[in-house]
Specification:
Blueprint lengths: L3 E4 L2 E5 L13 E6 H4 L12 H4 L9 H10 L3 E5 L2 E3 L26 E7 L10 H14 L3 E6 L3 E3 L83 E3 L27 H16 L3 E4 L7 H14 L4 E4 L14 H7 L4 E3 L1 H12 L20 E4 L22 H11 L4 E4 L30 H7 L11 H16 L3 H4 L2 E4 L1 H4 L18 E7 L6 E7 L10 E2 L3 H7 L6 E6 L7 E5 L8 E2 L7 E9 L2
Parallel strand pairs: 3-4, 3-14, 4-7, 7-10, 10-11, 11-12, 12-13, 13-14
Antiparallel strand pairs: 1-2, 5-6, 8-9, 15-16, 16-17, 17-22, 18-21, 19-20, 19-22
Helix pairs in contact: 5-6
């Protein structure tokens, strides 16, 4: 049965009906940057070289590490930064890239140098890097993991040149005298474009080892990855990358209806489409089972309909998740880009809107009630990838972010995000032990993020690695409990109420209820308290989720009203007794209430400490 609540003729929550019991396992993704995962080098010199700071290796993601992650409840591993990127580190037959086209000595994982190769930094024997990567894939399979890697379709490194598949190198055979040609891989600058004409002038002049030039682009220039049409990209541009061309001139607008359809033959599509299809096929053949797609909204939707369909013909279960932002003017659709990407075949899309609201609770004056409009998004609600951290976002435990609350803020934030819908969830390595990303690490400075541009080690995460034991032996008791808490959360959200159940928000019904978590002189409820129900009609399983987001205030005397139609849809008799068991607390909290009392008076809860979350399984009735 579909849950819904109607007030003044306005539907406030209406989610899609439950799916069948044969639904695939809900993805629980663990994102790890290979460069930092196994690296316990304690030098951590800002801007240090590989020799100075060390680097994680494929073989450090070993059976012990994988076993621990599997026991915690993860189903997928996103091996971030695997593809060979432009780098300041040289290897035999592979000279270092010029510092002018790098961000950080190690280089950005999103400035791909060879789409058919992996980063030599991660191999014990760089000449055998692909062999060592295949061995990692096999270890992951043996532990029941599906492996996801990055797919970066919008741009490549300025120095891109494939030595694995040189015949498929981007730019080979391009007509450089035109801005946009259907079968060019790149967009080429014209003499009259901003920036003073050739040569290309990079914003690096005067920095150590830099002169502001990139020799291959002295006679011609290419559009920068963030659509900057200029001979002099700025420091804020993605100057180390080059924009790829999918047969659509992005300067003419968002109408891509002229591009081929999803069933077009390979010889009937633009050249970049064919190259990208061969790249996806290559990694699928090696055993990769999913792709996290970088900045997917900047690529034409017709390409996705074509490429995803072809990838699924090769491997029906291949997983596609899009990083995309509807508020980016560079999106290539007039519709809501997250909905368009799902329509094009993606399994999931980034849930940046919910993340922004929750971060705004602590930094921007938002209320928990501000989440309510996001529950109207239909299909997208249950196909959003929800995360509290990733490599682009500030660390929860950083003292300059999330109100300076510390690592415990991850509890209410993750509980709400992970329990709201049926879609995939993600934890970023270090989040589970409160890695704070303190101080300047290299290229990005002190920005509250673990650097992706530099050779680095995470001091708190290294305590879990514990010299390769991966047993958390160096963690404090609060860190060990936090990691155990994330494991309990992942276990609970595997239950039917969360994998195929419906969502019913309760904040709307409790805004006028003075016992719904008000503090100080608040005259409305729902600032720091958020509550909702999840119910699976097939199994009859139901949960009440309640969280206190407040960083320091214990919410006392909380009562949650549950409307009569929600009680009815739960299938519980009005006169029955409901029992509640918190599946997150250790030891679990238990309570009982007459179902008839939950409407007007509300369900009485124990005191909710700061940053507390309760996932209360509801049983009883009759």
């Amino acid at each position: 049965m579909t849950w819904q609540a109607v007030r003044s003729g306005v539907l406030i929550v209406a989610m899609s009906p439950s799916s069948t019991a044969s639904e695939p396992v809900r993805p629980a993704i663990y994102q790890l940057l290979v460069r930092t995962f196994g690296n316990t080098n304690g030098s951590r010199k800002p801007g240090g070289t590989l020799a100075e700071n060390g680097c994680g290796k494929f073989n450090e993601i070993n059976a012990t590490a994988l076993g621990s992650l599997k026991a915690m409840g993860f189903t997928h591993l996103w091996l971030t930064g695997v593809l060979e990127q432009a780098s300041g580190t040289a290897y035999p037959g592979r000279p270092a890239d010029k510092p002018d086209i790098l961000k950080g000595i190690a280089g950005s994982p999103y400035a791909i140098k060879d789409y058919f190769d992996v980063c030599p930094d991660y191999a014990v024997d760089p000449e055998r890097r692909l062999v060592e990567f295949r061995e990692l894939l096999e270890r992951c399979r043996e532990h029941g993991f599906k492996v996801i890697i990055d797919f970066v379709p919008n741009h490549v490194a300025r120095s891109y040149a494939s030595d694995v598949r040189p015949e498929l190198s981007f730019g080979a055979g391009d007509e450089r005298g035109v801005f946009c040609s259907r079968d060019n891989h790149f967009f080429y600058l014209r003499a009259g474009d901003p920036g003073g004409g050739p040569p290309l002038k990079l914003p690096t002049a005067g920095k150590p080892g830099c002169d502001g030039w990139f020799d291959p682009e002295r006679e011609f220039g290419r559009v920068t990855g963030n659509n900057a049409i200029t001979w002099a990209p700025a420091a804020g541009d993605w100057y180390e990358t080059v924009k790829l061309n999918y047969g659509h001139d992005f300067t003419t607008g968002r109408d891509t209806s002229h591009l081929p359809g999803p069933d077009a033959a390979p010889d009937a599509v633009p050249k970049t489409w064919r190259t990208m299809d061969q790249i996806l096929a290559y990694w699928q053949q090696l055993g990769v089972e999913g792709f996290r797609v970088d900045m997917a909204h900047m690529v034409p939707m017709p390409f996705w309909r074509w490429a995803v369909q072809r990838a699924r013909a090769r491997q029906p279960g291949v997983f596609f998740c899009a990083e995309a932002y509807d508020n980016d003017p560079a999106k290539l659709t007039d519709g809501h880009v997250l909905d368009e990407l799902l329509e094009a075949g993606f399994d999931a899309v980034y849930d940046d809107p919910s993340y922004d609201i929750l971060e705004g609770l602590y930094d921007d004056g938002k209320w928990a009630n501000d989440l309510d409009p996001l529950t109207f998004t239909g299909r997208r609600f249950h196909q959003s990838l929800r995360y509290a951290e990733n490599h682009d976002e500030v660390r929860l435990a950083n003292p300059k972010a999330w109100g300076g609350v510390g690592m415990q803020v991850g509890r209410p934030v993750s509980a709400v995000l992970f329990a709201m819908g049926r879609g995939p969830v993600m934890v970023y390595h270090g989040q589970e032990v409160g890695e704070p990303a303190l101080g300047a690490e290299g290229f990005s400075g002190d920005d509250g993020r673990t650097t992706i541009f530099d050779y680095w080690a995470m001091p708190e995460f290294a305590k879990w690695v514990n010299g390769g034991k991966f047993d958390g032996g160096g963690l404090s008791e609060p860190q060990q409990e936090l990691r155990a808490w994330y494991g309990r959360l992942l276990d609970v959200i595997r239950q039917p109420a969360f994998t195929r159940g419906t969502f019913y928000g309760l904040n709307f019904n409790n805004r006028d209820h003075p016992e719904f978590g008000r503090i100080g002189g608040e005259t409305a409820s729902g600032h720091w308290l958020y509550a909702f129900l999840r119910h699976d009609a097939v199994s009859g399983q139901a949960f009440l989720v309640v969280v206190n987001f407040h960083p320091s205030e214990t919410l006392c005397g909380v009562r949650v009203r549950i409307p009569e139609n929600a009680v009815r849809d739960l299938g519980q008799a009005v006169g029955g007794v409901w029992s509640f068991t918190d599946r997150l607390s250790n030891p679990p909290w238990h309570g009982e209430v007459e179902a008839a009392q939950v409407g007007d008076h509300g369900l009485a809860l124990p005191d909710l400490p700061p940053c507390e979350a309760m996932l209360l399984e509801i049983k009883g009735g009759g």
